[in-house]
């Protein structure tokens, strides 16, 4: 999850999902799951399935890459 600036100037949450091999992705089921567990303001504004979460050689998340991807998604919407 990363934040990006929304059209109203506030920050919105973008969630990136990498599936395990053989797993299925049901966006509505995930949204329902999150709605049961998170306050509305904490829920992702967008959920994006990607092939692989970018990481360093030591396995740490490369959040700057995810932020860049979130920015690109905003441009294309």
TrEMBL record:
UniProt domain AMP-binding enzyme C-terminal: residue ranges: 11-60
SUPFAM superfamilies recorded for this chain? Acetyl-CoA synthetase-like (SSF56801)
Note the superkingdom of the native organism. Bacteria
Q: Name one Pfam family in it.
A: AMP-binding_C
Q: Do you know which InterPro entries this protein is assigned to?
A: AMP-bd_C, AMP-bd_C_sf
Annotated protein name in UniProt: AMP-binding enzyme C-terminal domain-containing protein
Q: Identify the species of origin.
A: Paraburkholderia ribeironis
